[in-house]
Amino acid sequence: MPSAPACLRTALAAGLLAVAALPAAADTVGKVGVDWIGNDIYVDAVSDPKVSGVTCHVTYFDRSVIDRLQKGNWFEDPSNNAISCQQTGPITIDDIDLSRGGEEVFKAGLSLIWKSLIVTRVYDRKNDTLIYLAHSREVVNGSAKMSISTVPLYGETVTWTRGKP
After folding, report:
1. Is 154 in a helix, a strand, or coil?
2. What is the pLDDT along the chain (165 residues), one digit of tens a residue?
3. Which of 22, 104, 117, 135 is the most exposed, having the fewest neighbouring CB atoms within 10 Å of its CB?
């Protein structure tokens, strides 16, 4: 049977791996008021955890308490969002998902339980481009509102940690 410190180290390592697999956290860099009742548009900077040197700015709408009281639908924000991604440093690409479905980079709740804002990265191998798709995910009645941004890699010095696909 492993010693207590060995078990603790194993549990800590497993916990760190689980945290490393989580989508990126956002850094709120802007908050713009849009009306007198307190509705705001937030601007978050999101760094791709597996692609250093790329930063996405994502906007989303945050409803005020007054708006929630007036219109009901207390626990939900609208699915409206926008995204813009740019190279912000030397690009190094780790082991990314190269499938057509891509890989979730960021997730934030837009309702208490049912709706999330998702940023998914897809690699377009033919055009050597990273595509970032911002969309909402709902349990039912998914929204068709989405926004994309691309980061072309062609002509750029890009380091692939596992070799270019």
Report:
1. coil
2. 444 433 333 333 333 333 333 346 778 899 888 788 777 888 989 999 999 999 999 988 776 566 666 666 655 555 578 899 999 999 999 999 999 999 999 887 555 455 678 899 999 999 999 999 998 766 556 667 789 999 999 988 999 999 999
3. 22
Strand, helix or coil for residue 144: coil
Q: How far is the CA of 55 from the CAs of 24, 25, 44, 84, 85, in angstroms?
A: 11, 12, 10, 8, 6
For the whole model, what pTM was predicted? 0.73
Alpha helices by DSSP H, listed for the chain, are 4-20, 65-71
Question: Angle CA(44)–CA(61)–CA(67) in degrees, nearest 5?
Answer: 145
CB-based contact 40:31 (threshold 8 Å): yes
Residue 151 carries which side chain, given as an amino acid letter?
V
Q: List the alpha helices (DSSP H) in 21-165.
A: 65-71
Pairing of strands 103-109, 115-124: antiparallel
